[in-house]
Amino acid sequence: MQGKNPAELKIIKLLKSGGAGYISGQSISSSLGISRTAVWKHINSLKEMGFSIEASPSKGYRLGGKKGPFNGVGIASMISTDIIGKEIVFFTSIDSTNAKAFELGRDGAPEGTAVIADMQTSGKGRIGRKWESPPGVNLYASIILRPGIMPQEAHQLTFLLAVAAAEAVGSYSPKRPKVKWPNDVLIDSRKVAGILMEMDSEADRVHFVVAGIGVNLNIREKDFPAYIRATAASLRDKRGAEIDRAEFTRDLFSSIEKWYKIYLGKGFSPVLDAWKGYFGFEGKPVSVSSFNRNTSGICMGVDKDGALLVKTPSGVERVISGDVEAGE
Ligand code: BT5
């Protein structure tokens, strides 16, 4: 884990607030209540992290034009939300951000704590599947939520995350993304983001939910492992330009927070309505595999709880979990 250094984050925020102007070492030292030498040391460590900071002996310090690094301080200095990502726990490498967030959740980490990693060695998909998580290119994030809901309502947060992810992806994509029931964000029918919700609960109460999200930001499609090359998409390739990962994280977290506040205030229905606006399967033939069952038919949309409705020769079936494929 990268050491959290509140002084460094404060210095970056001060420099950002100064815009193109210089801020004197003296004013940084007095607003943080630390010595000028300590300021100088922090500035050096920020430079080592990859921040471009210009120093002038007479005027002080200011931020250079280069974008900040993708690390705990770099991301935290961008975040403008009240809840989501208020606390950022960053790793250059970890097995799974979901596993770590679960551990932190059990230890009582506050709502909104976000675990983010540059790479994952055992990134998880649903039901024991794998999430490809190479370094230096994508976003892998897990957020702890404590919404005070019943376990049977927790799946609603998957829809919430999918809406927020589609919204954030959409603001970088020339094409409007679609959502695949229940948890994928697609561009041109290929998966650009996946969501994994895990919860800690007792019979009638959710203690916390870990909302995990992986977004293929700057990976090149040719670099995907062969088994997903035909089904995965990269936002970089769709957009034709690099995406700043810290900026994307800021935008994603703002969207999640916006929808989370709507959900807490007004319930699931506005979230589901927004989700339907991204859903591309209604009226189309689908085939859904869940556990030991396959259901094929025409997709009739989703009901008020988010269950998938599939019209089959024997009637309309209600599917509550599984994987959807476009059918014949
Ligand atoms: C998901 O599962 O889509 C959930 C993915 C959640 C990943 C995030 S990253 C941060 C957090 N920490 C974790 O450990 N996980 C979460 P599922 O619907 O089961 O899809 C998994 C399937 O997608 C795999 O079996 C592959 O076929 C495919 N896949 C794997 N990596 C991919 C990638 N990077 N891009 C697109 N498809 C991928």
The succession of helices and strands, N to C, reads HHHEEHEHEEHEEEEHHHEEEEE
Shape descriptor: elongated
Q: How are the strands ordered across the major sheet?
A: 3-4-5-9-8-7-6
Provide the low-confidence segments as ranges. none
Can you characterise this structure?
There is one protein chain. This protein has 328 residues and is an alpha+beta fold. The chain folds into three domains: 58 residues, Winged helix-like DNA-binding domain superfamily/Winged helix DNA-binding domain (Arc Repressor Mutant, subunit A, Orthogonal Bundle), CATH 1.10.10; 199 residues, BirA Bifunctional Protein, domain 2 (2-Layer Sandwich); 42 residues, SH3 type barrels. It is built from nine helices and 14 strands. The strands form three sheets. It has a seven-stranded mixed sheet with strand order 3-4-5-9-8-7-6, sandwiched between helices. The protein has a five-stranded antiparallel sheet with strand order 13-12-11-10-14, with no helix packed on it. A hairpin with a 2-residue loop joins strand 10 and strand 11. Helix 2 packs across helix 3 and helix 6 packs across helix 9. The longest helix is centred in the C-terminal third of the chain and has 22 residues. The model has no long low-confidence stretch (mean pLDDT 95). Bound molecules: biotinyl-5-AMP. The site of biotinyl-5-AMP has 27 residues, from helix 5, strand 5, strand 8 and strand 9.
